[in-house]
Design a protein that fits this description.
Elements: E1 18-24, E2 27-33, H1 41-53, E3 58-62, H2 75-86, E4 90-94, H3 98-106
Parallel strand pairs: 2-3, 3-4
Antiparallel strand pairs: 1-2
Length: 120
Amino acid sequence: MAVATEASPVRPNPPLFQVVISHQGTEVVISPHGDIDSSTSATLAQALSSVLADDRPSIVLDLTDVGVLDPDRAWVIGEAARLFRQRDGRLALAAANDGIRDVLESADLGWLLDERTRGS
């Protein structure tokens, strides 16, 4: 006699997290791909630190390809902005996803959002 068992849901592997750093004129664009959470925020912090060490005047953190930003990890972005400002630099954020913008706004980091990405 065969016994039917309930199949446990198969959870697909989360997307691989990576950070791409590109140069557009004098501006550096840092583009994380994947979710920013407790397991990936150190990778983002390291990328931001490496650009800070290069003493670049203008940095854009492009969050377009970030699915989820853990609210407890948004401080990484705020701290990077503070460090860039201390060196008379500029860190702007570009985000396409409403959820990312909401997290940034709730973390008092909405002022960093690029004007092109703000909702009306």
